[in-house]
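Section 4.2 – Deliverable D4.2 (structural model, holo form)

The reporting period included a commitment to supply a predicted holo structure for the target in complex with NDP. Inputs used:
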Amino acid sequence: MNPSDLDHIVGEYDRVGVAQAEQAVDAARAAFPAWSRGGVQARAELLDRIGTEVLARRAELADLLASEEGKTLAEALGEVTRAGNIFKYFAGEVVRIRGEKLTSVRPGVDVEITREPVGVVALITPWNFPIAIPAWKIAPALAYGNCVILKPADLTPGSAWALAEIIHRAGAPAGVFNLVMGSGSALGPVLTGRGVDAVSFTGSTGVGASILKSAAENGIKVQLEMGGKNPLVVLDDADLDVAVRCALDGAYFGTGQRCTASSRLVVQDGIHDRFVEALSAAMRAQVVDDARAPGTTIGPVVDKNQLAQDMSYIEVAEGEGGRRVEGGERLQRAKNGFYLSPALFVDTLPTMRINREEVFGPVASVIRVKDYDEALAVANDTPFGLCAGVCTTSLKHASHFKRNAETGMVMVNLPTAGVDYHVPFGGRKGSSYGPREQGAYAAEFYTIVKTAYVSAG
Ligand code: NDP
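Output (structure tokens):
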């Protein structure tokens, strides 16, 4: 369904049941010996072909993505391009799989450390980046010699189907890549059960916790990317334009539906009023409308459940004493869609629910602080630890923040959302579990290290 236009059905897709998901696991298992021991050149060429087709068809794939997820065409184009680049990047990484050879402490013995594929890997992905997140899991999984089962989010089957078709056409041998579309709760036990060797998940904290439990019970390697409550600290010495741009992009673009969204704006006393005024003005200048219409800067919320969640957090924030200075209204547009104006709260406290729980919508709240030390303490006062940003012209504060923010990623004078495709992505505390994703660090999850001792005899 198109969240910009509820009369537009983007496509119809089947749901598989447990028996078909089990067949996919069996097919992956059967394909694994040949795929994992086959030549790396074949893997490199497969990934390169996939990347080439994704990039060549980026406009068409972006249109599909914007239609089913609701991000703007420009954002969708960026996401599809990123997905293509990820496949290209891992096409190169395939021929850079490294080992080590060390001298043993025992004379006459050599020690070799090599990386081997994990086996059958289940990838469970959310709706908010329906092509980039599958890409950044599938590409390293295949590059390092694993067989894959992808379970995309129920809300965004079209992008997953298009990507699967491309992978198939690029020549992935039967069983190496499998797509299962269906309800997460129904298929979850198969995808985190004894038939698979590893599961990589991105989504909500609650589902992540249940996957961790099931993986532990079944002895499966697990990687989880979950929520965030990312702070953007704005210090008195910040460049106001930079700070407003960072807040606007980080909090509201992508309709705020990003795990790296800056939902907490931690603002120092001296710049507070100017910042709130300038950000409010910038918010009023945004165009909330059909994701595919020229000029739209913020698309609709993804579906009615997410919209209900966003609206309920707006009520919660008001009930807690937060003052809404901008947005937070349901909007009617030419087409009937899930439109919500971006919302800004001030006078909020770090202890309020609006500052502790992930909303996952275009809603941000300002916490006023007196100095840098309080800003850092507030930024770190959260169960999450994905990304933190600071806007400042002080090298001293930027350097200290970079070192002391309790997150996996830090941004200085940049929005908390928006990352490169060739470097590690991930968080600390309740945001992430297991090895990092993306870049060369993806090898940590998609391979197993083997240590071999060799004596000449
Ligand atoms: P979920 O965590 O429910 O879904 C993510 C993926 O997990 C989907 O493919 C889903 O399938 C699948 N899934 C659901 N239940 C199970 C299960 N028991 N076992 C295995 N897989 C399962 O997130 P939603 O998409 O429903 O979004 C809900 C909330 O999660 C959002 O409002 C937001 O707060 C947060 N979220 C955070 C994201 C992030 O990047 N940090 C991304 C997306 C959501 P299915 O779609 O079929 O249910």
